[in-house]
Design a protein that fits this description.
Elements lengths: L5 E6 L5 H11 L4 E3 L2 E3 L11 E3 L9 E5 L2 E5 L1 H9 L3 E5 L3 H11 L3 E7 L4 H11 L5 H24 L6 E4 L7 H14 L16 E6 L5 H11 L4 E3 L2 E3 L11 E3 L9 E5 L2 E5 L1 H9 L3 E5 L3 H11 L3 E8 L3 H8 L4 H20 L6 E5 L3 H15 L5
Parallel strand pairs: 1-7, 1-8, 2-7, 3-4, 8-9, 10-16, 10-17, 11-16, 12-13, 17-18
Antiparallel strand pairs: 3-6, 5-6, 12-15, 14-15
Helix pairs in contact: 1-6, 4-5, 7-12
Length: 388
Amino acid sequence: MKDLKVFVLFGAPGSGKSEVCNILKSKLHNNIEIIRKETTRPARKTDSNEIIHVENISSKCDFRYSQYKYDYGFSSKEIWDNLKNNRSVIVIVNDIRTIKLLNRKFGNLTFNIYIHSNINKNKIEKIAKSRHPSANENFLIKDINKRIDKIRTIHRKYIENTYLFHSSIINIYDLNDPKSKYNLETQIEQIYTLNHSFKNIFGSAAHVIIIAGGSFSGKDDLVNAMIQIEPRKVALYRKGTTRPKTQRDKNELKHLNELTAKYDIQYEKNGYKYGICINDIWSILSDQKIALIVLSDIEAIEAIKNSFQNICSVIYLHSNIDSEELEEAQKTMNSNEFEKRLASIDQLLSSYISKIELFNHVLLNTSEAEDLYDQALNILDYYLGNAI
């Protein structure tokens, strides 16, 4: 009984939901069932046996929702029947209201997973051409734009409801790339053993939030958004560093000739030392403020988590930057610096994939500036008790 879960999968078309289902079934030795859905949409060649095509959703479906002008429905009885028989279930649903209703009905049995895919125009174009090999160019352009709009819609829904999700799968590789399956399996291997249960019923600001993001992820923008939203309840912790100050620095670091013994946690990055003082973080908390720490060194993150235990959470800030944006960024820096930044993105993503249990939330840095503010508000509401 203790391992039974209602896995709720939420993700854009083409994000890899089917692949996640297959891996989950393999990991749980097929002791898991995908809940069947009725739908009024036309059949597709790629539909699985779990999709039942009907003219009207039947009365046995007590969960119903509409998407892209078609109706969908499934039965809670089928979920309960599987649980009674000691089988976990998978529910694939892209409707936020339905996810909330599932949470109400099944409580802590639900485990909501967001499957993220970047907007990759080349990949989307290949999918469109493979599904419509004889289509003309105008049809393909419309189909590609429709797919991109659907992905953006899902991104937006996730951004507005981050707190609903227990974990996130980052699936940004081509499915033909062997690395893709390895990364999916690595993430899923950890996810089905996770158990996040934080609830701030007292609305306390006594919390440490670590923001881990690579280059171009928008770390500074997220920090600024959180401070602007709750200036009396949020403070940024300033790390010590031996790195000289640059024009890009905005008073977020203490530039020192050397790090003293007061810095309990120290690490190196690009030849410079950085330090974190646990007592200074406690001082922020004693002022009744959430302590924000921008940090991407995994060993340092683990050390802070060990110090603050269940009042410490880690956010992975994922960059959705595409190839065109990368080309523009490359023009503003030398090649050596640019390569280091790209390496930092890959390194942090690999750390997330291999240590999902270390991270409590995934936020998305999209092309829409207001999205970061929406996510900042979402997270603060959660940790200040406003979203309970």
